[in-house]
Fold each of these.
Amino acid sequence: MSDYVLQMKGHNRREVEKEHDMHLQAWLNARVKDTDKQGKLIYKKFIDFYDYEKRRHEVFGDMKQPPNVSNNMKKALQMACEINT
């Protein structure tokens, strides 16, 4: 019976995570369509909205750091790398 309870808790947690992801996606879709005061789109290209390479550098630090990464972020990345090795 305890296995069943744990499985149900896991299932319910996954469902809540799915709901969260769906709501986040809906919110992001709305943000992409945002306009400025003149009615022009704020994000003209996807990279203006989400810079994948920059985010990879922030999270993994596996390549040369972009120039706008803060010292605190560099320290956090170093600590994370040390912990994971």
Amino acid sequence: MKYVAFLRAINVGGKHVVKMTDLKRLFETMGFTNVETFIASGNVIFDAKKASESKIEAALRSALGYEVRTFLRTPTELARIAALKDEDGTLYVGFMVDEANAEAKQKVKALCTPLDTLHADGKEVYWLCRAERFSDTKISGAAVEKALGQATTLRNITTIRKIAAKYN
């Protein structure tokens, strides 16, 4: 079965820099096959009979010396996400390990501003940002995580669409 691992905090702002060839090799040492990376922001595609976020996180922590939160999706799941329409703005998708509960969904909704529309659905949070630049928004990834009560990693819908198109 094919999986896509979205890794949190890899090659962001010059911190926790990992060469994609090294990341590929790490996934191969975990026993995964047909390993590929997609852009240098911690997207790893691989085949496995079975994969678990916790197994990958433990192996990466051991190899890299720091925690790397991992979020797994299948190409089918990504195709569903990729089919979403992004309106006037840029759509970002935050991946979570667990589904957001009703309280977390309300907290995420409370973050909305005239420039930012957010909602959680299943194991994803969707953030439509209408600011000219993402850095112009008043909301942070940390605020979204606090509202959700769990870690997340964000990707631009363009990245998700490219991965979905290539692997579905």
